Amino acid sequence: MTNYPVNMDVRPDVSAHFDPATNTISYIVKDPDSTHCAVIDSVMDIDYAAGRITQGHADALIEEIRSRGLTLDWIIETHVHADHLSAAPYIQEQLGGKIGIGADIVTVQETFGKVFNEGTEFQRDGSQFDRLFRDGDTYEVGGMACLAMHTPGHTPACMTHVMGDAAFVGDTLFMPDGGSARADFPGGDAGVLYDSIQKVLALPDAMRLFMCHDYGPNGRDIAWETTVGEEKANNIHVGGGTTREAFVKMRTERDKTLDVPKLILPSLQVNMRAGELPRDPDGHPVLKVPVNGI
Ligand SMILES: [Fe+2]
């Protein structure tokens, strides 16, 4: 049983947008009793080899919000993603809304501010975001009460956002046959991730869970929605009462075999700035490649 205040009687409308380039799922979540909505984990397109940024994925979200006549209240980042770039500022410019992330973004900014040798103009206080969520914080989408749960382990700033009977878990969990996300990035911790997953699994069994990523393991079609009950019973990494010790051993061994995400360098530089591109002294957008930096 969870100690967080949840209301399973509120059933938001959830529209999913899958990005095949990064296997990310972005969501438009609509309050069932008004025309207000939130966007969760948007994606900005990048051709990294060419240094070219485009906004096809975000434009599709914007187009859907406009055509349905919705008002955008929030643009939520579940965490600082290392595998895709956020389009939050681009969406905010066109539709408004507040950009929010976990308060421990400051830890991530401190770590990667050093890695990318950022100057003093790069603030490490989270001020690039409109709202920094702490565990148990509440906010509203229209009249729908929403809740931020701190679920660190994959990164220090990871949050799970609960809106009615739907929870957006970021990279805390994958689909039952996908298991869990890696915990070997700076600030990651497999034991802490296990504890966070237990917080999610303590939510009601019927709670709908929405993933940030899916890779279609074993050739199955891409999927992004499951339930707490399903994960508890069948998740290949934590289902069926796996112990903390067994999870940490599995996760640590598995993480050693994983490649560095292709877009980690541009993703971190952009996402730790709430989706803004870094700029050179002349004001031109530019991305760094620190050699042997991570
Ligand atoms: Fe992630």
Set down the secondary structure blueprint.
Elements (H helix, E strand, L loop, with lengths): L12 E7 L4 E7 L5 E5 L4 E3 L4 E3 L1 H12 L3 E6 L11 H8 L2 E5 L2 H11 L15 E3 L4 E4 L2 E7 L8 E5 L2 E3 L21 H12 L6 E3 L14 E3 H7 L9 H12 L8 H8 L23
Helix pairs in contact: 1-2, 4-6
The site of fe (ii) ion (FE2) has 6 residues, from loops.
What does this structure look like?
The protein is α/β, with parallel strands linked by helices and 294 residues long. It has a single domain, classed as 4-Layer Sandwich (Metallo-beta-lactamase, Chain A). Helices cover 24% and strands 22% of the residues. The protein contains seven helices and 14 strands. It has helices at 56-67, 88-95, 105-115, 190-201, 228-234, 244-255, 264-271; strands spanning 13-19, 24-30, 36-40, 45-47, 52-54, 71-76, 98-102, 131-133, 138-141, 144-150, 159-163, 166-168, 208-210, 225-227. Strands 1-2-3-6-7-8 form a six-stranded mixed beta sheet, covered by helices on one side. Strands 9-10-11-12-13-14 form a six-stranded mixed beta sheet. Helix 1 packs parallel to helix 2 and helix 4 (190-201) packs across helix 6 (244-255). The mean pLDDT is 96.
Brief account:
The protein has helices at 56-67, 88-95, 105-115, 190-201, 228-234, 244-255, 264-271, and strands spanning 13-19, 24-30, 36-40, 45-47, 52-54, 71-76, 98-102, 131-133, 138-141, 144-150, 159-163, 166-168, 208-210, 225-227.
Brief descriptors of the model:
24% helix, globular, Metallo-beta-lactamase, Chain A, 6-stranded mixed sheet, binds fe (ii) ion, alpha/beta, 294 residues
